[in-house]
Specification:
Layout (H helix, E strand, L loop, with lengths): L2 E8 L4 H7 L9 H4 L3 H10 L3 E6 L14 E4 L3 E2 L14 E2 L2 H13 L5 E3 L6 H10 L8 E7 L9 H16 L6 E7 L16 H11 L3 H5 L3 H8 L6 H10 L3 E13 L2 E11 L3 H4 L1
Parallel strand pairs: 1-8, 2-7, 2-8, 3-6
Antiparallel strand pairs: 1-10, 3-7, 4-5, 9-10
Helix pairs in contact: 4-6, 6-10
The chain binds 3,4-dihydroxybenzoic acid and fe (iii) ion.
Fe (iii) ion (FE) binds next to loops.
Length: about 290
């Protein structure tokens, strides 16, 4: 059976791609951020996932305001990236796992999630930047199932709905027959706002609240409405919907094993989190 080993949440700011290309890892501005990935790389080398289910938001590369699905699940054999205009290197393609994607899609529709299924799907910086941070300079050792959540055009799905989407996917993964080690990834956030009167807005207090609650008390965060969340975290801070879905997919006992928080990276409060998921019955887990 497939096993969900844990979750990683990561900021996906495009400027990180430029800093990597220019080898700025030890630059004083970047060091506190990149240092936060030392443990992530160690943990991944130890845990060796085969698959990553990646919750992210598309920024106009694949979907635009003319057609924007609330939830879209990739079912492609390969996911390409393209030049988005940020001036960062276009990353390599990522292999997919169509059989697992269709299993997830079947389960979601059976659970009454009316998703969009994509046999072709481009992936943007919200997938490729976290992948590059997790496995720098190597061929990515995982196949992916990308799940795009609309965090861009209102009305957005609620935090509670994204948590339930994650739950449904977690159940589907746990019932998959192949012996796969599955990592769940949520990208974006934490607080940031890129435009309007509040451009540059960051809220450390609220970010800390979200980081403190997501492992053990995610329901506390799920109670916020999208509008209240935007007020506290900024218009793009609502990318946290991807984190909620990631947390929902961790269906066992969840423990935080690593956290890094650094202000600012570009316009964003940059956060990295590693959660372990123990799926064994309580009697065996002790
Ligand atoms: C930035 C943050 C994002 O989430 C994004 O998608 C693009 C840019 C930024 O802070 O620069
Ligand atoms: Fe973003």
């Amino acid at each position: 059976m497939a096993r969900i080993i844990g979750g990683i949440a990561s900021t996906h700011v495009p400027a990180i791609g430029k800093a990597i290309a220019e080898r700025k890892h030890n630059d004083p501005y970047w060091k506190p951020f990149f240092k936060g990935f030392d443990f992530v790389r160690y943990w991944l080398a130890r845990e060796k996932p085969d698959i990553a289910v990646v919750f992210y938001n598309d920024h106009g590369l694949n979907f635009f305001l003319d057609k924007l699905p609330t939830f879209a699940v990739g079912a492609a054999g390969e996911y390409r990236s393209e030049d988005e205009g940020w001036g960062i290197p276009v990353s390599r393609s990522v292999p997919g796992d169509p059989a697992l994607s269709w299993h997830v899609i079947e389960a979601l529709v059976a659970d009454e999630f009316d998703i969009t299924m994509c046999q072709e799907m481009l992936i943007d910086h919200a997938v490729t930047i976290p992948m590059t941070l997790m496995w720098p300079g190597q061929t990515w050792p995982v196949k992916i199932v990308p799940v795009a959540i609309n965090t861009v055009q209102h009305p957005l799905p609620s935090l509670a709905r994204c948590f339930k989407l994650g739950r449904s996917i977690g159940r589907a993964l746990a019932s998959y027959e192949q012996d796969l080690r599955v990592l769940i990834v949520g990208t974006g956030g934490l607080s940031h706002q890129l435009d309007g009167a509040r451009a540059g807005f960051i809220n450390k207090e609220f970010d800390t609240f979200c980081l403190d609650k997501i492992a053990g008390e995610p329901e506390t965060i799920a109670r916020y409405s999208v509008h209240d969340f935007v007020e506290r975290a900024g218009a793009q801070g609502v990318e946290f919907l991807n984190w909620m879905a990631m947390r929902g997919a961790l269906t066992g006992r969840v423990t935080e094993v690593h956290r890094n928080y650094h202000i600012p990276i570009s316009n964003t409060a940059a956060a990295t989190l590693v959660l372990e998921n123990d799926a064994r019955p309580a009697s065996l887990a002790a």
